[in-house]
Amino acid sequence: MPHFVIDCSENVIRLKSADDIMQEVYHTALATNLFIPTDIKVRINPFTYYNNGNSSDDFIHVFGYILEGRNTDQKAALSKAIVTKLNEILPEVPIISINIMDFEKASYVNKAMV
């Protein structure tokens, strides 16, 4: 925990490698000091087929899933930091966004907990 799942148009990974994009998200999340380095997971899903409001503009959207306990200001700062970094490395991408969702501690289970 946390998990950052990056959805993007396939062209985005032609502009910058998937590994580079994931590393930038990883390092930006780490720099917030909200997470332990070994807990941060990042994945990327490039899409060939999509419709953005009836356009084919390139896009990046990050779904951030974090364990509950961070306040709204911390989550907002995390969101802003990631979008700012992605905009710095991919300024030609017109749509860059993120949302942060909390995992509930009471209902979260992973293999090590069973």
Give the total of beta strands: 4
Low-confidence stretches: none
Q: Structural class of the helices, strands and pairings? A: alpha/beta
Following the backbone from N to C, one meets helices and strands in this order, namely EHHEEHE
Residue share in β-strands: 25-35%
Protein name: 5-carboxymethyl-2-hydroxymuconate Delta-isomerase
Pfam family, one: CHMI
Describe the structure in your own words.
This is 5-carboxymethyl-2-hydroxymuconate Delta-isomerase. It comes from Flavobacterium collinsii. Pfam families: CHMI (PF02962). The chain is of the alpha/beta class and 114 residues long. It contains three helices and four strands. It has helices at 12-15, 18-31, 72-89; strands spanning 3-9, 41-47, 59-67, 95-103. A four-stranded mixed β-sheet has the order 2-1-3-4, covered by helices on one side. Helix 3 links the parallel strand 3 (59-67) and strand 4 (95-103). The longest helix is centred in the last third of the chain and has 18 residues, at 72-89. The protein starts with a strand and ends in an 11-residue tail after the last strand. The mean pLDDT is 96.
